[in-house]
Design a protein that fits this description.
Layout (H helix, E strand, L loop, with lengths): L1 H8 L2 E3 L2 E5 L5 E10 L10 E9 L2 H5 L4 E14 L5 H6 L14 E16 L2 E16 L5 E9 L4 E9 L11 E12 L6 E2 L1 E11 L3 E14 L5 E11 L6 E10 L2 E9 L8
Parallel strand pairs: 5-6
Antiparallel strand pairs: 1-3, 2-3, 3-4, 4-5, 6-7, 7-8, 8-9, 9-10, 10-12, 11-13, 12-13, 13-14, 14-15, 15-16
Length: 277
């Protein structure tokens, strides 16, 4: 059981509770799971799981097929050390993406509920991403998977809904993994990112690889304002390429409509977070 969990979670795991189930489906329930990165077992735990329920089918069991019908996780809490810190480099060293090429056992449905991704920051409060639900189907090494996620963004705050496909995962070159999907980023509080205000709704599509994703989006802000300016409705569209290895963004076109005024722009956002172009 421990080796299967390590395969699914790409981590070294220990757990405090475990019991088998037989009807209506064969499987088990594990509790108090602690995950440590394989590449850094001496660091504090990467995360914790309250409860994991694994259910198979009797037909797969009798036929000796390496297939699990359901893995259902509740209370997953993953903590990522500050980006750029020694702990982060040790926890996620170059090449550690080879851990993430998918499990040997087919997971028909992989569910995560009531969970939290926490990214620590040097000299600041951690960024918290509450995950209401994540569903992955056909999680298996060498095959594409489909996903749907319902979660909150940390900064700026807002609600994320997304679904699409990903894979096959390229363990030795993880950023080459294909990805595509549709998303809605709504109830976005623009005041979180500067001296502006308004609530933005954005919907769009993306396609490419984790290294370079082409993104198209439509946005609407009913009450956009700068500092104490008059709130004004703003509509916009954008076509861009997002680079996953460093977060740079090449903006091919932004078109904004502010009442009767139309603005067109191109550009890029790249470089050190304290100095952008």
């Amino acid at each position: 059981i421990a080796s299967m969990l390590e395969d699914v979670l790409a981590s070294q795991v220990t757990f405090t509770g475990y019991h088998r189930t037989y009807f209506p489906h064969p499987g088990f329930v594990a509790t108090g799971i602690t995950m440590r990165r394989k590449s850094a077992p001496d660091l504090p735990p990467l995360g914790h799981v309250d409860t994991m329920v694994v259910a198979g089918t009797w037909s797969d069991l009798v036929m000796l097929r390496q297939r699990v019908e359901l893995v259902d996780i509740t209370g997953l809490h993953v903590v990522v050390p500050p980006i750029g810190s020694k702990e982060n480099h040790k926890d996620f060293p170059p090449g550690s993406g080879s851990d993430f090429d998918g499990p040997e056992t087919i997971i028909a449905r992989f569910m995560v509920h009531k969970s939290l991704l926490e990214i620590q920051r040097i000299g600041g409060k951690p960024l918290s991403f509450p995950i209401k639900q994540l569903e992955i189907r056909n999680l298996h090494k060498g095959e594409a998977l489909t996903y749907a996620v319902d979660m909150q963004n940390a900064l700026p705050t807002g609600h994320i809904l997304a679904h699409g496909s990903m894979g096959p995962m390229q363990g030795k070159s993880f950023l080459s993994t294909p990805v595509s999907g549709n998303y809605a980023f709504t109830q976005v509080n623009l005041h979180d990112v500067g001296d502006v205000s308004g609530t933005l709704d954005a919907r769009g599509v993306f396609k490419g690889t984790l290294a370079a994703m082409d993104v198209e989006t439509n946005t609407e802000t009913q009450s956009f304002a700068v500092t104490d300016g008059k709130p004004t409705p703003v509509e916009g569209t954008m076509r861009a390429t997002l680079y996953g290895d460093h977060g740079d963004l090449d903006i091919h076109a932004i078109d904004l409509k502010i009442r009767e005024t139309v603005i067109h722009a191109v550009g890029s956002i790249k470089g050190d977070p304290k100095l952008t172009n």
